[in-house]
């Protein structure tokens, strides 16, 4: 028999919050989502990658529509600047996954949550687990009682902070430059056409970092966008501390010079041009953080998505982890008769697995940004061995064959 108590509050209406709401609504729960942002979230992110089986599972389970737009990854080209137009291919790595447009993913998940359930512009102020119920105080001035509270409130989660006051967001000490634009804007498609033949995505290696470039669906699901991201040491002009986030429109000419130098020194001209196609006003800088916690659920309160652990983006798991959390939570709720037992089960399933992912993100960051090898000297065999050493017995979906 499933859990009797049915009133659930979900804090945060982004990827994790909307997916959790869909799961609980389908399970017959009385759900309320509280998202502090009044407007649509659809202009937030860019490209996100998920495993193909997860996408199929989400479609089959009804989270995503059958015509949900995505692009397929087939292999990964590790390129290095050798003075030629496109650079030298160091390694062709099998790579499986599907790329998504953040906005399209959010919109698809949000469309499964009706407006009477989703309360935009309402923030969590305070909560207290009273044993038999959870008391939740909101920015609309109300205090309400729920059978359970799900924290889907992202990487600065107030719910995590209360459950785990010791938990810290740990800066990695490096940043991610990002941009994307419609593929139709490009004149020189030479490299993309070549990559398309094998659904390849690019990794451009340089001392102290690397860049990635892959296609994502366009905002309406018609056509594609070129999505790029470059991991590197923080620009000195930003203070060099690697903790300052700069949204599109905020990158000054002085800060942007760091990217220009990076492209000029280490990127083959054809790949540099694909990055430089993004106007400075459309480029953003994101500091990289991560963080672990030792528990995902306590009594009547649970965490999903970035509100739990935070992984570095190298693991391609921001949305993946959130969606896997939700699927596990759905399963645990169906398999138990009370919330504390369901959430204890959920904690067992997710905390260790997600902390392992955080550790993997740290190893990848060390190998591919903080302590980069002499890339140009590496043979394909060296790359394969180096990758296995980084994985250290774990697996990562986009390091595998499709
Ligand atoms: C602006 C932005 C851009 C991103 N871009 C990318 C990207 O391009 N690629 C990628 O892989 N990942 C990206 N991510 C991360 C990715 O979305 C997440 O890793 C993943 O999808 C898990 O999402 P989440 O729902 O757990 O957290 P989030 O997407 O961070 O959502 C948390 C939500 O909780 C809300 N919230 C926070 N506190 C409260 C409160 N007190 N009361 C009510 N609501 C609250 C926030 O407004 C937010 O909507 C981005 C995240 C953000 C926030």
What does this structure look like?
With 402 residues, the chain is an alpha/beta fold. The chain has two domains: 7-38 and 121-169 and 294-362, FAD/NAD(P)-binding domain; 71-103 and 170-289 and 372-399, 2-Layer Sandwich (D-Amino Acid Oxidase, Chain A, domain 2). The protein is 31% helix and 28% strand. The protein contains ten helices and 17 strands. An eight-stranded mixed β-sheet has the order 3-5-4-12-13-14-11-15. Strand 1 (7-11), helix 1 and strand 2 form a beta-alpha-beta unit. Helix 1 packs parallel to helix 3, helix 1 (15-26) packs parallel to helix 8 (318-334) and helix 8 (318-334) runs antiparallel to helix 9 (339-370). The longest helix has 32 residues, at 339-370. The chain is globular, with a radius of gyration of 21 Å.
- Largest pleated sheet: 8 strands, mixed
Low-pLDDT runs: none
- pLDDT averaged residue by residue: 93
Question: Shape, please?
Answer: globular
Compressed to H and E, one letter per element, the order equals EHEEHEEHEEEEEHEHEEEHHEEEHHH
Strand order across the biggest sheet? 3-5-4-12-13-14-11-15
Content of β-strand: 25-35%
DSSP helix count?
10
CATH architecture of the largest domain: 2-Layer Sandwich
Radius of gyration: 21 Å
Q: How many separate domains make up the residues?
A: 2
What is the terminal-to-terminal distance? 39 Å
Tally the beta strands.
17
Topology-level CATH name of the largest domain: D-Amino Acid Oxidase, Chain A, domain 2
């Amino acid at each position: 028999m499933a859990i009797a108590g049915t009133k659930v509050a979900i804090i945060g209406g982004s990827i994790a919050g909307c997916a959790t709401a869909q799961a609980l609504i389908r399970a017959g729960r009385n759900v309320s989502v509280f998202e502090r942002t009044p407007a649509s979230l659809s202009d937030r992110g860019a490209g996100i990658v998920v495993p193909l089986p997860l996408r199929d599972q989400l479609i089959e389970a009804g989270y995503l529509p059958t015509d949900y737009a995505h692009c397929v990854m087939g292999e990964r080209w590790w390129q290095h600047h050798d003075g030629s137009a496109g650079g030298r291919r160091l390694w062709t790595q099998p790579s499986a996954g599907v790329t998504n447009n953040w906005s399209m993913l959010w919109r698809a998940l949000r469309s499964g949550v009706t407006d009477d359930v989703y309360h935009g512009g309402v923030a969590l102020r305070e909560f207290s687990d009273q044993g038999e119920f959870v008391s939740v105080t909101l920015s609309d001035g109300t205090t309400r009682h729920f059978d359970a509270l799900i924290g889907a409130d992202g990487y600065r989660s107030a719910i995590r902070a209360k459950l785990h006051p010791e938990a810290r967001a740990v800066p990695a000490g490096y940043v991610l430059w990002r941009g994307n634009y419609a593929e139709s804007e490009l004149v020189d498609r030479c490299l993309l056409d070549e990559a398309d033949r094998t659904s390849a995505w690019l990794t451009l290696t340089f001392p102290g970092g690397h860049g990635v470039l892959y296609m994502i669906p366009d905002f309406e699901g018609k056509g594609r966008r070129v999505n790029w991201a470059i991991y590197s040491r923080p620009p000195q002009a930003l203070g060099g501390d690697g903790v300052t986030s700069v949204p599109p429109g905020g990158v000054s000419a002085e800060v942007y010079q760091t990217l220009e130098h990076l492209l000029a020194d280490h990127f083959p001209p054809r790949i540099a041009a694909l990055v430089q196609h993004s106007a400075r006003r459309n480029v953003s800088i994101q500091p990289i953080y991560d963080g672990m916690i030792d528990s995902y659920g306590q009594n009547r309160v649970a965490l999903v998505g970035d509100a739990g652990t935070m992984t570095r983006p190298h693991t391609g798991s921001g949305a993946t982890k959130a969606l896997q959390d939700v699927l596990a939570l759905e399963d645990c709720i169906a398999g138990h008769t009370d919330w504390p037992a369901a959430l204890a089960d959920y904690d067992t399933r997710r905390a260790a697995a997600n902390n392992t992912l955080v550790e993997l993100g740290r190893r990848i960051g060390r190998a591919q940004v903080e302590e980069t090898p002499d890339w140009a000297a590496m043979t394909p065999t060296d790359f394969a061995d180096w990758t296995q050493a980084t994985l250290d017995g774990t697996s990562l979906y986009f390091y595998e064959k499709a």
